[in-house]
Write a structure and sequence with these properties.
The protein has about 180 residues and is α/β, with parallel strands linked by helices. Helices cover about 45% and strands about 15% of the residues. The strands form 2 sheets. Strands 4-3-5-6 form a 4-stranded parallel β-sheet, sandwiched between helices. A hairpin with a 5-residue loop joins strand 1 (about 1-5) and strand 2. It is globular.
Length: about 180
């Protein structure tokens, strides 16, 4: 064990040091609403399924809300690209716009994905967490315009996961109710 000058001489084991250094899911130490500097490259991801388009939750409304959020006087982030999947379910991540967005992240083209709500990103908990882990490793943050995920706290990470579970529950429940209705 060695002494840690930051923690007032408290001894920390090598195992604990490795644990503290380990990168964890969504453990970026920041809030999704933390202010990145002006000019930060961000992308917008928007998606609607056919049913939602009929109900008026349009792609343009999502983009408008994201652009307002990014371009506010407080943020002044630079929207570099917009990815969209019109008429695609969020049940899986095999959507063309989503795949292009993930590839752009791998290529280091942006630091933030702006979404209107987490259920636009995915309605599958496994895919949400898998893609979020990858984005976390790439130092890319997901920012929801309507939901504040504070990844620096255990409560914030729990809220993020709960919203992902609710997004999946919604689509599963809708499917069950549709079958029952037929």
């Amino acid at each position: 064990m060695s002494q840690d000058p930051i923690n007032d001489g408290i001894e920390i084991s090598a195992r604990r040091k490795r644990s503290l250094a380990k990168k964890r899911l969504a453990d970026t130490g920041i809030s999704s609403q933390q202010e990145y500097p002006p000019g930060t490259p961000v992308v917008i991801y928007k998606r609607v399924s056919s049913e939602e388009q009929v109900d008026g939750f349009s792609l343009s409304a999502q983009e408008h809300a994201c652009r307002e959020f990014a371009g506010s006087e407080k943020r002044q982030w630079q929207v570099t690209e917009v990815f969209e999947d019109p008429g695609h379910s969020g049940k899986n991540d095999k959507r063309p716009g989503f795949q292009s967005m993930m590839q752009a992240a791998r290529n280091g083209r942006y630091k933030v994905i702006l979404i209107h709500k987490l259920d636009r990103f995915s309605r599958n908990i496994d895919n949400t967490l898998k893609n979020f882990r990858e984005l976390n490793e790439l130092d890319v943050t997901i920012v929801s315009v309507t939901e504040d995920f504070d990844y620096s706290t255990t409560q914030g990470r729990m809220f993020f996961r709960m919203m992902a579970v609710f997004a999946q529950w919604y689509i599963e429940n809708l499917s069950a109710e549709s079958i029952k209705g037929k």
